[in-house]
Q: What sequence folds into this?
């Protein structure tokens, strides 16, 4: 039985949209909630949580830095990255060469952040400040 070409093309388009929809590219100001439905979060430039705002990262999220960028919290900002034993949160980088100052990612900066910041069941690898 032959499958009409139109059906094959439609299936390929649907599969492509599903794969692309699962990746979120971020840069600049970030806040709100990041869910695993939109993971991985690909960091294309420095990101910051603005003053008096909160970034919540839910279990199962992967945050991947595409360059030597940092996650910075402005004054009185909070981050709540609370994973679980079964479903951790991963912070990583595409450049895993830590032999110089340009490899990895530039870290998570909590300077002057608000009380109550939490990173629970998070794996942070290839940080290089």
A:
């Amino acid at each position: 039985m032959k499958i009409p070409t139109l059906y094959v093309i439609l299936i390929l388009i649907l599969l492509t949209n599903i794969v692309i929809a699962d990746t979120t590219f971020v840069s600049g100001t970030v806040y709100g909630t990041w869910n695993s439905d939109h993971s991985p979060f690909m960091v294309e430039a420095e990101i910051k949580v603005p003053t008096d705002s909160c970034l919540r990262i839910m279990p199962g999220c992967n945050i991947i830095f595409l360059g030597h960028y940092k996650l910075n919290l402005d004054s009185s900002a909070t981050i709540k990255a609370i994973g679980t034993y079964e479903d951790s949160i991963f912070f990583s980088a595409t450049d895993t060469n830590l032999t110089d100052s340009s490899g990895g990612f530039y870290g998570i900066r909590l300077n002057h952040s608000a009380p109550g910041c939490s990173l629970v069941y998070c794996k942070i690898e290839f940080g290089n400040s």
Confidence is low (pLDDT under 50) at residues 12-20. Residues 13 and 66 are 27 Å apart (CA to CA). DSSP finds one helix and eleven strands in the chain.
